[in-house]
């Protein structure tokens, strides 16, 4: 075998070993990348280390730190309580509410932070006879939507990786594609899982908050600790190495927001608004630097929360993405990535090649790290773009969203959390249906996204 092929085999084997041994994928990837670069590619060690994406480190650390302060000082809890208390009395709106709330939380740096809504939403769904599949898919779709916001992990990784390969991908366009796809899927879920019947069902907001308070401790995720936290696999093989606190807090009547909460909320809006404004003006906002600036202001206003939030910085994901991208950069230097892209292009039709890559992204991501797939597969699509026939932004956006919408399968962290927080009597059915839904997305996602994004740009 040629050195590029050997490097590809080692890359796949490293993924497999990290998953089977349940060790941190990023750390193992970085160590093996150093060995491959030195002894197989003949690269200086400085060149290997230069492949570590420092720009991603600034982005992820800045964004996760800023929103961690908002979590620690209670602003996010107040926001959720305030919104839930004002949803009205129509049960039809409950899954939509949790979709929007989960998307908002997932947009705050760490997508899996949206899992805090699972222990809240699933018991509420049972109490008000909302099909647990509908609520679970609403929460999963919210995570997939918010994850591609310019301020969240999947959006940051996809756009940064695309830009490093010379492909211009607008972060707002990527976010809109992800949100639009998941809204369509939520509408389908409403049709399949009793959404129309919910329009005639009413509830009293005060009742459901009280009912949830009484039962929250009974519906913690399986394996959760006393604080309701879901243990996360440090390997990054489904949990993406993100530390998630899915706390089963009672949704009591909303407390009044204090000054610190209002200031934090204002800074959150200011950060998101600044990013959107600069993007609309055609500028290239550095979200990481902006997050550090706003976090510094918030830290000075609320020093205790600033100190406590340091431990919540998402170092695990920084290492996961950094290790994978470092290995990919070594393979790019060796020509292994071009080899894969050329192999996909040799299939013949660019559309077929794009479809195959999207299917692979969804299939692998259903069982492994979505973040890892984004970091590894986006560069592989670049040679296909370079050969012409398809628009770079379209295929990368399709690839990224296809890797995300399968995460509701019970083999992934999102789907597992939905199953764990469902009522015990519903778990077998929910597991079976989530498996069918998630695996069907392996084909439906590429058909939908390649058909709507890649096909029109290739005509």
Automatic annotation (TrEMBL):
Residue span(s) of domain Dicarboxylate carrier MatC N-terminal: 1-147
Pfam family, one: MatC_N
Transmembrane portions of the chain: 26-45, 52-72, 92-122, 134-160, 172-193, 259-281, 287-303, 315-332, 352-377, 384-406, 434-455
Record's keyword annotation contains Transmembrane helix: yes
Stored InterPro entries: MatC_N (IPR009827)
Keywords associated with the record: Membrane, Transmembrane, Transmembrane helix
Official protein name in the record: C4-dicarboxylate ABC transporter
């Amino acid at each position: 075998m040629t050195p590029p092929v050997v490097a590809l085999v080692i890359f796949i084997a490293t993924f497999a070993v990290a998953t089977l041994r349940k060790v941190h994928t990023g750390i193992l990837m970085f160590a093996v990348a150093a060995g491959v670069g030195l002894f197989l590619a003949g690269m200086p060690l400085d060149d290997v280390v230069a492949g570590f994406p420092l720009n991603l480190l600034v982005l992820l650390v800045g964004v996760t730190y800023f929103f961690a302060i908002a979590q620690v000082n209670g602003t996010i809890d107040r926001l959720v309580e305030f919104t839930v208390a004002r949803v009205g009395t129509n049960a039809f709106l409950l899954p939509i509410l949790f979709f929007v709330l989960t998307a908002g939380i997932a947009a705050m740096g760490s997508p899996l932070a949206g899992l805090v809504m699972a222990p809240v939403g699933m018991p509420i769904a049972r109490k008000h006879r909302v099909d647990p599949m509908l609520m679970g898919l609403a929460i999963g779709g919210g995570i997939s939507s918010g994850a591609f916001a310019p301020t969240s992990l999947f959006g940051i990784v996809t756009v940064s990786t695309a830009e490093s390969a010379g492909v211009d991908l607008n972060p707002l366009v990527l976010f809109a594609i992800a949100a639009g796809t998941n809204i369509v899927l939520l509408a389908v879920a409403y049709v399949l899982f009793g959404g129309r019947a919910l329009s005639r069902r009413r509830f009293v907001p005060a009742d459901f908050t009280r009912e949830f308070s009484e039962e929250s401790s009974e519906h913690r995720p399986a394996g959760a600790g006393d604080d309701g936290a879901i243990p996360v696999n440090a390997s990054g093989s489904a949990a993406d190495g993100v530390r998630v606190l899915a706390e089963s807090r009672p949704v009591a009547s909303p407390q009044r927001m204090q000054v610190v909460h209002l200031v934090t909320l204002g800074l959150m809006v200011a950060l998101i608004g600044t990013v959107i404004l600069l993007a609309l003006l055609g500028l290239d906002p550095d979200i990481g630097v902006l997050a550090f600036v706003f976090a510094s202001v918030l830290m000075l206003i609320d020093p205790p929360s600033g100190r406590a939030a340091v431990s919540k910085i998402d170092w695990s994901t920084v290492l996961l993405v950094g290790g994978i991208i470092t290995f990919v950069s070594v393979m790019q230097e060796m020509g292994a990535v071009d080899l894969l892209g050329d192999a996909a292009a040799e299939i013949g039709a660019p559309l077929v090649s794009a479809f195959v890559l999207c299917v692979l992204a969804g299939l692998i991501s259903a069982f492994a790290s979505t973040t890892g797939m984004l970091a590894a597969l986006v560069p592989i699509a670049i040679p296909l773009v370079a050969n012409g026939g398809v628009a770079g932004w379209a295929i990368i956006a399709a690839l990224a969203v296809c890797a995300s919408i399968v995460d509701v399968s019970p083999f992934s962290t999102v789907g597992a959390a939905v199953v764990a927080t469902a009522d015990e009597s519903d778990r077998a059915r929910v597991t079976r249906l989530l498996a069918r839904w998630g695996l069907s997305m392996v084909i439906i996602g590429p058909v939908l996204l390649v058909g709507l994004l890649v096909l029109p740009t290739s005509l």
